Structure formats: structure tokens, C-alpha cells
Task: structure prediction
Amino acid sequence: MNWLLNEAGKPEANLSSPGSRSTSAEALRFFQIHGAPGIRLVRYSMASRAQATERVKEPAEYTRAIVETAPESLLVLDRDLRVKAANLSFYKTFLASPQETEDRLLHDLPNGEWNIPELRSLLEGTLENGAGFEDFEVTRELPGAGPRTLLLSARLIRPEPDKLILLTIEDGTERQRAQELLRREKEFTERLINSTVDGILAFDRQCRYTVWNPGMERVFGVGKEKTIGRCAFEVFPFLKETGEDKFFLDALAGKSVVAKDIPYRVLEMGREGFYEAYYSPVRDACGGAEGAGAIIGGLAIIHDITERKRAEQALQESEERYRELFENASDLIYIADLQGNIIDLNKAAERITGYCRAEALGMNLAHIIAPDQMGRTAEMLGHKLATSGQTTDEVDIVAKDGRRVALETSTRLIVSDGRPVAVQGMARDITERRRSENSLRELSARLMHAQDQERRRIARELHDSTAQTLSALAVNLALLKQHADEPGGRAFDLLAESEALVDEASREIRTVAQLLHPPQLEEAGLAAAVRGYSTSFAERSGVDLDLDVPLALTARLPQDVETAIFRILQEGLTNIHRHSGSPTAGVRLALEDSEVTLEVRDQGRGMPLEILDTSGSIAGLGVGVAGMRERVRQLGGRLEIASGSTGTTVKAILPVSDGHAL
Result:
């Protein structure tokens, strides 16, 4: 580098070859830009050089300091690409010494780092045509710095005959990282703009479009090839006609504005709708205070609200239809707050309750609910608040004129922001239906009573006539067998078989008579009938029976109560035998607190829902689960059925007067 420094020790280093008689020469001029040293190749005449030397005489040490403190690594190469000089930055960066570097071919430098065919070709091209090159990229592992990207630039600084090349080596790693980061940010921004559903546009200070994303094309049916670079008011003249040009001008004036419910129409596509636009200024400041920097344009985000407007229109129409249905429905419809105060009601509610709208609004439901059902109604409201779905109940109200009206109500919660705020109910007047049900229930009770009476009659007939006849026949057949003397004993065998059949028929008739109406029930009372039937069931079925019927229970109960208990016992044991698969069963009969209780239990597979819900009969008794419930309800009692995988328990509880005891 001493050669370069010696040459540069003058204000302008003469780079012409020694002995040259040219009237012109080239020199390296050293200067500073913003405090940083620089080198410039200057061509001038020899006469001018002499004059310049006289005018400018810089100390050699100042020039030497500029070269040595240059941040880039510098190499001077001759026409053979031999290193003639290198600056201090090169030696520090690549940990090389002048002895290892100067007067050596570039591609022969230690470690072969610079033996790059492409670089060699570029340098030879510089020697040949003097064009030079810039920013040739090389990746090197620098000591203490790791892999770095080096940018090499070269130019010819001495022409013929002794050509010299100045090779500048700059660490471009950070610059490339910044460029890569900028490229990625730009790509991300473009993807974001192009992928958003909303339309995004940008414009410069002359209102020329600079950004027009696919969202804008979807809304307005115009591609960016027809908008970019053109003035917005030329592309869409209607903007001035509708006054929307004001939004552009507001953004360029530094204002952020929102334009709502703007109609649009795309004639080419036959489509029309509405949009909202958000305009804001675009400034050239980056990272400064908000609002800082010169305004260079504007940005607008266009949100198509056509579907929302249509939804709002549909909602309004739906509300109108709902109101029409609400007012004209034949069923009572009301809305009440969570305290039970009436907020709204329809015409049917006015008709059924007798209160006009003005009287009912603000009235609490407690004012019209029958007093004897207030407690149950409070339970219903509590259940409603704990249940998100629709619930159905029955409740009685007292109309304005004192009439008691039975209602079947279906209610649901009205929820706002995830919290219940009111209750909407629909109620149907079931007063007539309830009367019909009561009449039907009374008729059903009479039919059951008649059925029991008929069974008693049939049982008596079977016992008093058919059974007696069969008994006589058995006697006759026995006598015939004693006197039969037919050779071969054929008559004897036939008579024996007939006798067996008669015995079997008698047993079956007795069993049927007992099932229809056991004699014990009338002759000995409920307790004895339960014992007898249960014992007979255990013998016929093979089920191990645990019977709990105290011997002290001897007194009689009302006939209807005894019949109901006995029929439920029959139904329960028949179900165990036919459905449960249980090897054991239990029967308990007791009188507790003026209530008679029958409990039938097993340890089987449980009762299926279709049997629990059936209204049909089992074993031809015409009872069924529904029949058991109806018998119990007719007598003011209750039927409890608990069924699961470990077995089933049926418990019938009927009230008895204090004057009756088992």
C-alpha cells in the first residue's frame, strides 16, 4: 500500500505510467463526503496538473490517513491481477500481512479464498474494456464475524500501458439483510392486501390510483389494469356527481373519514349494492410521531355491506311478519321479565284473561295465576331459569271475570349477550280438554269397575258350573275304568287318558278363575289373596320369592283398593317372569300412615322404555303400566317405578281412611 500512499500523498495522485509524454493524465483525487473519505479518478491535461499542483499542496500524511481509515478493503491489481497494494482495512478484515499479500497473484493469496473463476473473468474483462463492475457477491467466513456477504466492485484506474485496477471489497451483509427484510415486508403487505375480502385502494396527491386490490375488482368489476396510474375521477366520473370526491380531498388534507351506506352499481355485471369506506391520509414519515410527515397520498378500505343491508331488510320484514303472527295467533302469547312482570301480550291473551292491553302491561303474573298454584308456578320459573331449552307445563289462571282457565304453557328464555333477560310464553286454553279428560277418566274408572264385576261373574260361572261338570265327568270316568273288561285293556287306557285330560282342564280353569278374580280376595281379604297368588306364582315360575306379608294384616279394605293392589301385584309378577330374567323376586305389603303400600321388586335386567311407556296390556289382563297408573290415580294414590341395570322396583301407594286396617 506504500506505493498507493506515496502516489496519494499529493493532492492528486498521478497514475500515468513513468516516461509517458501524453498531454493528459489520470489521477486519484481524494475527498470527503459528509466526513467519509472518497477516491475519484480524474483525467486532466499535464498543464492543468502543473497548475493544480501549484494551487493545492496537501500534506502526504493527511492523504495517507484518508486511505488507511477507509472502511472498505482496497486492493490495487496490475494487469496480471497481482496485488500491488492493500489498505489497512483489508489486512484487519482478512487477518493477512503485507508479506502474504503484496506482489502475489490474487488467486494465489493464502487459503485460496480469492481463486474464483467468475471474479477472475470479470477482472480480466475490466482490463480489456475498462468497463469495470459493481457489487459482485461473494460469501466468506470472516474471522470472528462468521459468514458474511462481500460485495466487490472494480474499475480501471490507470490505462495503457501499465494498467491498474482498484478493487473495492465492501461488507454488504447488513445491507442485504435490510433489503431482504424490506422485500419480505413488501411481499407480506401485498399478500395481505390481495387476500383480504375488503377492497383496498391507495392514491397519490393527484388522486391517481397506486393500489387496487382484487377486493376492489370483486366489488366494482374493474381490474387494476384500468385503474392504476389513472385519476380516480376519470375512471369513475360518478364520484364527483355523488360528492364522493370530498372523501379523497379530506384524506389529502390529513383527515380520516368514514362514508356509510354508499350505493353502487356495476352496469357491466348487472350488480348493485352498498358499501362503507374508511379514508385516511398516507404520510412519508416512518416510525415518527403519529400524524408526522408530509402527506403523499391517501388510503381507503372499502367494505361491501350489501349482504348486511339485505339481512337488515329481511330482519325488518321478518319482524313485521312476526308481529302480525303474534297479534293474530289464536293462542295466548306473552313476554314477561324475570320478575314476572308482563312486557307484551297479544290479542288472544286479552280475550282469554279478560284484561285489555293497557291493564295487563306491567301486571305481575302472580295477579292472574290461581292462588293454589302459586308455589308450583314459582318452581316452574326456577326450573325455566335453570333450563336453556323449551319447557311445557300446565297452570290455572283466574280471568278478570273470576273464571278459572286451565292453560298448557310452552316457555323459552329470551337471551341477550349470553344472559337471560325475559321469558316468552305461548299458552293454549285447555279448559274444555281437561273437562273431557276428567270425563274420560271417570268413564275409564266405570269401565274398569264393570270389567272387574264381569270377571267376578265369569269366575263364579266357571266355578259353579263348568268346574262342577268336569268334576262329575271325572267321577264317571273313574267308575268306568273300574268296570271296564274290554279284552286287551284298550278301554282302560283310553279312560285313563281321559281322566288325565279332565284333571288338567280342571287345573287350568281354576288358574284362570284365580287370575280373573281370586276367591281369596273376596273370601279372606287382600293379605290372604296376596299370599296365595304370590305362592302360586313362585311354584309355577320357579322364581325364588321373598314374601313379606305380616300375618297380622287381616282386616278388610275398600273393595276398589283391594282390587287395585291385587291387579298391580299380578302385573308386577308377570313382568318379572316374562321380561326381567330375574331368578328372585320380592313382595311386600304394609300399612303405613293411613296408606297401604305394595312393593314388587326384582334383580333383573331392568324395564325397557317401551314397556315403561306402553299403554297396552300384559298377560291379557288389560292393565299394563298405563293401566296401573290409571288405577292408582283413580284412587288418589301414586305409582313409583325405579328401573335400572340392577333391577326394577314397582311401588303402589294408596290412601285408606282411618277406619280401615289390614
Observations:
- The chain has five domains: 2-175, 196-310, 333-429, 431-517, 525-655.
- DSSP finds 22 helices and 23 strands in the chain.
- Residues 7-44, 614-623 have pLDDT under 50 and may be disordered.
- Residues 196-310 form a domain with the Beta-Lactamase fold (CATH 3.30.450.20).
